[in-house]
Each structure stands twice: as structure tokens, then as C-alpha cells.
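Repro case for the chain-ordering regression, as requested:
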Amino acid sequence: MVQVGSSLQRRRALAATFVAAFALILVPTAGAESQIYWWQHNMAPGEQGFSRTTAHNHTYNELYFGPNAGWRSEVWEVTPAGYRHFDKVCVGNCFNSHPGYYYDYPYCANRDGSTHFVNDCMDRW
Amino acid sequence: MRTRKLSLIVLTVAGSGVAAAVLSQVGLGGSEKVQIGTGKVSALSRATRASDALPSSVLSYPFAVHNFASPNGAGARLVKSDGSLKLYAVPGKAGMVCLIEVDDLAQTAGGACADRRVLLTGSIYMADRQEDGSRQVVGLVGDGHTYAEANGRRTPVENNVFVLREVEGSQVTIGSTTAAQTVDLGD
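-- result from build under test --
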């Protein structure tokens, strides 16, 4: 009877360990989310794409013109209080990956002097 | 006599037109279109080393799928290592070439990919705004470029790349022994 109880305890402990390990594996995946906040538009010079629905702890921001990129672009982030962070100007398709220091909104813009087709701008948090 | 006069007028008008077209290219539009080299990036042709492999974190970004010629970053070359900052040149899709920056200490990464023709008249660069308002500018240039300069400070181009720190203002100059190009960083 004692042996049966001990075996049951071992099984329960093993099962609990598996559940805990599985949960740990899932945590980073469950925490990471992404969205495309600007989708297939002709973007005028200086026009800004952005997502201001909910501020997030962003770690990634990308502008993608397409495979023919050759124009100046910019990605940056702005906190609800208006502070600008993670500001990167590029030539062509552009990304900026960084630690999630601030709760903020993602922005992207075509900084060339003429209108260009932008496939998407994407952020991650 | 009349025909000769008419021919002279036609020739004069046509000649003036050609001269005006040439002058507009040299004097106005031409000043922004100085070409250096052929757009070739020799750093991409050197023998592979183990250190050329891009970090797996960079390969996991959507940017890699969108832009790199190979999803595993094949053909990438580590072109500069400066403290915690590493710069990689990477072959891109459809004639593009990419510059990737990775800073292990700051835990940041960035990238720019553009058509290779950009390298004829300028640089594929990234300009990062710093806390003090200045910019850190890293750029990929084609063969033939020998220097980059901002705020009166000149840095040599090595392995087709340059790094300029504490850049104030909105312009960087890149050049060869015989010509110079102005790169506009914007406001």
C-alpha cells in the first residue's frame, strides 16, 4: 500500500514537472505579438503610417517598400507622452530591433521626395 | 540664300537646345548625381569565415525573409567589428544588397536593404538618433569610395563600410580620390 502511494506521488511529480516545463516553453511565444500596421499604400513623401490603438512594449519595427527599394525611409516609436525613441533613418527597406524599454506606438514613413508604394510596416511587442 | 538662313536658324536653335540640356545635367541635376565606381561590393566576394554567419536572431526577423537572397543569410560577410558593434553585408533579393548592424551590448539590431544601383550615387546607410540628439551613421558603399565625412571629421572606408559617430546636422559626404557625393540624412 505504501509502495503504491509512493509510485503515485512520483508520477504526479513527473507530470507536474512536464506541465511546468511546457508552460515555460510557451511563455515567450505567448508573450510575443506582432501586427502589420500599414498595408499596401502609395505613401506620399513625409506621410506617416502608425498604430495608436494601444501602446505596447515594442521590440521591433520594420518598413518594407518591396524588392525594388531604393528610397529613404524611417521607423521610430513615440510614447503616449510624446517622447520619441528608437528613431532610425535608412535607405530602402528598414528594420530596428531593440529591447522593450518603453510602452509606445510604432511609426513609419517614406522620407523620399516623391510618392512610393509601401508594402507594409510591421511591429512586434 | 533664304534656305541657308533658315538652316542657320534651325541649327542655332537645335544647338542651343542641346547645350541647355547638357548644362542642366552638369550644373543642376548633375551635381546630385556624381557617380563613383560600378556599384560592386568586393567585400562580398572574399573567402568565407566562420564569423560571417549572421546571428540567428537576425535570421528570425521578418526582414530576413523579405529581403535576403537566401533565408539563412548565405553570402553574408562580417565587414566591420568595432567594440560591441558588428556590421554585415548581405546579398539581397532581386539585385538588392543589405547592410545589417548588430550591437551585442545594447541588444539592438538594424538593417537596410536597397537596390544595388543606389551605390553608384550614394550609400545604403542607417542613421540612428542618439539620446543627445546626434546620430550614429553606418553606411555601405561601392568599390572606389575611400572616405566618409561629417562635421569636418573624416573616417576611412574599409571593407566597403564606414561608421560615423556623433553626427550633427543632416548631411554626410562620401567620396573617392577624385569625386565626392552628398548623402542627405533628412531632418
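Ordering looks correct now. The helical segments of chain B are 2-28, 56-59, 62-67, 118-121.
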